[in-house]
Specification:
GO terms for molecular function: glycosyltransferase activity. This is Polysaccharide pyruvyl transferase family protein. Residues 432-710 form the Polysaccharide pyruvyl transferase domain. Pfam families: Glyco_transf_8, PS_pyruv_trans. With 780 residues, the protein is of the alpha/beta class. The chain has three domains: 3-243, Alpha-Beta Complex (Spore Coat Polysaccharide Biosynthesis Protein SpsA, Chain A), CATH 3.90.550; 418-574, Rossmann fold, CATH 3.40.50; 598-765, Glycogen Phosphorylase B (Rossmann fold), CATH 3.40.50. It is built from 31 helices and 24 strands. The protein has a seven-stranded mixed beta sheet. A six-stranded parallel beta sheet has the order 14-13-15-16-17-18, with helices on both faces. Strands 21-20-19-22-23-24 form a six-stranded parallel beta sheet, sandwiched between helices. The longest helix has 28 residues, at 751-778.
């Protein structure tokens, strides 16, 4: 399988395999490459099989923009090889993983026993798909190449060439003592552009005591004796060229600072970092690493994950070797922009520290995202062994031990139906009740319209990689949704910018019909999608999808404004399936036979949400709480007010009312009660006053009157869609308590009328939903 470089910055890269034995050579290679080619816009990718934490920390302190990718070493154990006494018996083959790095237009590989003496950016402009320097001795007319430097384009990273290398390696049909070089030579059989020797001048091409040609761009210290190990007698003049870049880290950073001041460092973040280091900014300075961590936390909270990465990378140079907290902050930021290998590498540096439990959780999260369930379980268990009460470790472990992401979703099936894939947010144990019900609601409505026998679940927060695409392509189609997936911060990623972690390349490989089902644009006032990634991903999705159904017209308006004019009309209205559940026959939610029991309905459920509290309440929470207390007290003797908690934090309102105002309110924890019991409680309630979107939509879908505490535009959007904006009250309204009491009293005194209004509006949503879904589903 190819390794998608989802966190890449550029479309071209320098790549080297590095281990601890050759790390001194890599440092000089890195310094020479940076100093001789500072303005080249290219990633530097480090392939490795497990570098020491000290070496990782040092490398990042020299070039914080390094990309780390761990080699899939197991495949090379299957290669037939020569003498096992050779140190390079297996590790020489690891550079072949460069052919599994997708997403780059051009790759240049470099051995770590090289030093760069001149410009080599022209290698990225070659008009040939593969180029190398022929082997110096016994090249067989140029057929045999030297693999120290390879230049190849994206046609060699689509998996075909890598598969050919594996076949040759496993068969042994190559010069075994030439290792990776032998395998590549056998695969190409001379079909490559022969580069001048100046790009890979091997040590033995120079006589003892001599110097390489003046135009040598890359000097390659092939052979057993390396400059960092004492060198070889007779080659002092060549080794002097290597040692001129074997400078102290401080001298290197000072040189980079001078280049940055001259405007010669290509990457602006790196340039800023080198300037700061060159200016001698102390760690205690307000701009230093400690302050950078505080600011990065603020940036992540604001959704600026790329900004957090840039800030932390720039100050990593000042930090020198990274401390544990800095490494974990940088790891969290890398994960948020889909630099998963880098996140794992940085988190690993904290495993031997007092924050090892936190590091294991970070590693477990990264492993789960990329589909490494064994690794996720292992790290989660290690975290729990160190800190048995760490909640996040329990959650990640629960995800990783599920047989499938959707193992706990219960929905009707049609034995004669089709097989569909469903990408959704499948919640953790004790997760948000609305999100628990939502995937089941999507499936119930889809099966009602077009029978579905089997569902293949895809968790939207996991990387939708090549394996995930192939599994989906074995089904008849893919539904994505519902829920407010157009949101940048619930599970941030750099592949799409919204909750479905889908790289563009994966979308291109999808061969089955794609439909977005009741997706919502879920930003709070003041939130925004930063950068262009969301807009680009959205455009590709709309171009590719056969159905783009958004759950309210407010979302449609916001999304259409982001799209090119010729795509805007492809976005259609598809209400959230939870709003029509009672009308879907033969399910656990179907409306019961009519019974005139309104006289017994005396429970008013109150739901208050606390996620993103600063966005919901601003600085007015005490005033809001006082208004809610007035509302609850006003209903005394009229109805029984109970808290309908969709999540654990939703229970807080009961605690705060008692602590601040002495008002006791009972709590029903819907996230613990299960779907059947919660359905009954919502259906039998007289009224639901909710702040969460699904604290309105779910009871509405079961026929129960609602009032909305509007702290998010989506609640207003829904009420406008059903023609009842008067059922919403803004949380910042000055007389909130009195207004809620007035509206609630009216509903309680006229339940039949309000239930009839809900029924009429719900029927209209049902007709709209079926009309939108039927053409898409029946075409499969």
């Amino acid at each position: 399988m190819s390794t998608p470089m989802t966190g890449r910055t550029h479309d071209r890269a320098f790549v080297a395999f590095v281990d601890d034995n050759y790390f001194p050579g890599f440092v000089v290679l890195l310094k020479s490459l940076t100093l001789t080619n500072p303005d080249v816009e290219a990633d530097v990718v480090v392939l490795h099989d497990g570098l020491s934490l000290a070496n990782i920390s040092r490398a990042v302190s020299l070039r914080p923009d390094l990309r780390f990718v761990r080699v899939e070493t197991e495949r090379y154990e299957r290669y037939r090889k020569g003498s096992a006494a050779n140190y390079l018996y297996t590790k020489a083959y690891y550079i072949l993983d460069a052919f599994r790095l997708t997403g780059y237009r051009t790759i240049v590989t470099l051995d770590t026993d090289m030093v760069v003496l001149d410009r080599i950016d022209d290698l990225f402009a070659l008009d040939a798909p593969f180029a190398a320097v022929p082997q110096f001795f016994d090249s067989d007319g140029g057929r045999k190449l030297n693999s120290g430097l390879l230049v190849f384009d994206q046609t060699y990273t689509d998996g075909t060439f890598a598969a050919r290398l594996d076949a040759i390696g496993e068969s042994g049909q190559y010069e075994l003592e030439r290792h990776d070089q032998g395998v590549i030579t056998a695969a190409l059989d001379g079909d490559y552009l022969h580069l001048p020797r100046r790009y890979n001048w091997v040590k033995r091409a120079t006589r003892r005591g001599g110097v390489p040609p003046q135009d040598t761009a890359i000097l390659h210290f092939t052979g057993k004796f390396k400059p960092w190990d004492g060198g070889e007698h007779g080659y002092a003049r060549l080794e002097a060229l290597w040692h001129q870049y074997d400078v102290s880290d401080a001298a290197f950073l000072a040189a980079c600072a001078r280049l940055a001041e001259q405007g010669l460092i290509a990457d602006p973040t790196a340039a800023t970092a080198y300037k700061a280091r060159g200016a001698g900014v102390p760690e205690s300075d307000a701009r230093g690493p400690v302050a950078a961590q505080r600011e990065a936390t603020r940036l992540r909270a604001a959704g600026d994950f790329a900004g957090a990465v840039a800030l932390l990378e720039s100050h990593a140079l000042e930090a020198g070797q990274l401390d544990t907290g800095y490494a974990l902050d940088l790891a969290a930021s890398y994960r948020a922009v889909s630099r998963y290998e880098d996140a794992a590498v940085l988190a690993s540096t904290a495993l031997a520290s007092s924050r090892a439990g936190e590091a294991h959780v970070a590693l477990a999260e990264v492993a789960w995202i990329v589909g490494d369930l064994d690794g996720a379980r292992e790290h989660a268990r290690s975290a729990l062994a160190l800190e048995p009460l760490r909640h996040k470790a329990r959650l990640v472990h629960a995800r990783a031990v599920r047989e499938t992401p959707d193992a706990e979703v219960v929905a009707s099936r049609d034995p004669d139906g089709i097989t569909l894939s469903h990408a959704a947010f499948y919640v953790d144990p004790l997760g948000n009740y609305g999100d628990v019900l939502l995937p089941a609601a999507v499936r119930e409505v889809a099966t009602h319209v077009r029978g579905v026998a089997e569902w293949h679940g895809v968790h939207v927060h996991q990387l939708f990689d090549e394996a995930a695409v192939e599994a989906v392509n074995e089904t008849r189609g893919l539904l994505v949704g519902g829920g407010g997936l157009f949101l940048p911060d619930t599970s941030p990623n750099g592949n799409s910018g919204w909750q479905w972690n889908v790289p563009d390349a994966s979308l291109d490989r999808l061969r089955v019909p794609l439909g977005l089902v009741a997706v919502g644009y879920n930003l709070f006032p003041g939130q925004e999608f930063l950068g262009s990634r969301f807009r680009e991903s959205l455009t590709r999705i709309v171009e590719r999808a056969e159905l783009v159904g958004l759950r309210n017209r407010g979302s449609i308006e916001r999304v259409r404004a982001l799209l090119p004019a010729d795509l805007a009309d492809r976005v259609t209205y598809l209400p959230c399936p939870t709003t029509i559940l009672g009308l879907v026959p033969g399910t656990a939610y179907t409306d019961p036979d009519p019974v005139d029991d309104t006289a017994t309905r005396d429970v008013v459920y109150l739901n208050v949400a606390y996620d993103r509290s600063a966005l919901r309440f601003k600085d007015e929470y005490p005033a809001f709480l006082a208004q809610i207390d007035a509302f609850v007290r006003g209903l005394a003797g009229v109805a029984q007010v109970r808290i309908g908690a969709h999540t654990i934090p939703d229970e807080r309102i009961a605690v705060d009312l008692y602590r601040e105002h002495g008002t006791r309110v009972g709590v029903d924890s819907f996230f613990r009660l299960g779907i059947e019991e919660t359905t009954r409680l919502y259906r039998e309630a007289a009224l639901v006053v909710g702040m969460r979107g699904h604290a309105g939509m779910i009871p509405f879908g079961l026929g129960t009157p609602i009032l909305s505490l509007v702290s998010h535009p989506k609640l207003r959007y829904f009420l406008e869609d059903v023609g009842r904006p008067e059922w919403g009250v803004d949380v910042a309204e000055r007389h909130l308590g009195a207004r809620l009491l007035e509206l609630s009293t009216d509903v309680l005194g006229a339940q039949d009328r309000y239930r009839a209004q809900v029924a009429e509006a719900r029927l209209a949503l049902y007709d709209t939903s079926v009309a939108a879904l039927r053409p898409f589903l029946e075409a499969m």
